[in-house]
Amino acid sequence: MRVAVFPASFDPITCGHVDIATRASQLFDRLIVAVYAHPKKDVMFSLEERLAMVRESLETLEQVEVKSFEGLVVNFCRKEGAGVLVRGLRAVADFQYEFQQASLNRKMLPGLEVICMFASMEYGFLSSSIIKEIAQNGGDVSSMVPAPVARRLVDHFSFVSPPLASGG
Ligand code: ADP
To answer: Cis ω on the peptide bond leading into residue 7 (within 30° of 0)?
Structure first.
């Protein structure tokens, strides 16, 4: 059985991530979409919220399973019996980081294969941080993220936005 892991923080999942997960799921018997429990960078959504958004966004993909993980992704791959790590490549800028990570992960887990899939043209400019910035400033992100994410972004920013100044 060919098992692959697609790891990310998914803070939040975007249409770019969904595209990679959809295409990768067609290449493997099982694709585990793995949500970093405690990424190094600050996250906007809790692990539970990120997991829920990923699950709701990918629920139609049969071969896909959504799990969270902590620590090194190679240890998670070992535990799950996954021989392939899937990543996405948007621009040249992604290459250096992905190449470094792939080399280190393959050193830690010999035999692991890392597959980088090119972003689709329409999503190559998307990142979770850009989505958050647009949403925070009232922009419409509904074509850039799955519906469950768009809903939560609206809720999040209407909840945190400061109250309108009362007259006077
Ligand atoms: P992390 O927080 O784990 O760094 P990212 O979203 O930055 O999460 O990246 C996770 C993986 O998803 C990376 O391989 C990245 O290149 C890929 N990725 C992110 N956005 C897109 C996109 N729009 N299209 C294709 N791949 C993407």
So the answer is: no
Query: What residues does 71 pair with on adjacent strands?
Result: none
Decide if 144 contacts 12 (C-beta within 8 A): no
State in Å: Cα 53 to ligand 1 middle.
Answer: 16
Closest CA to 82 of 7, 165, 167, 162: 7
Q: Which residues of the chain have pLDDT under 70?
A: 159-168
Distance 8 CA to ligand 1 centre (A): 7
**Residues whose beta carbon lies within 6 Å of some atom of ligand 1:** 8-9, 14, 16-17, 20, 39, 87-90, 94, 119, 123, 126-128
- Tens digits of residue pLDDT in 139-151: 999 999 999 999 9
Tell me the angle at which helices 15-25 and 47-58 cross, rounded to the nearest 10 degrees: 60
Neighbour order of strands in the sheet with 64-69: 64-69, 30-36, 3-8, 84-89, 113-118
CA–CA separation, 140 and 89 (whole Å):
25
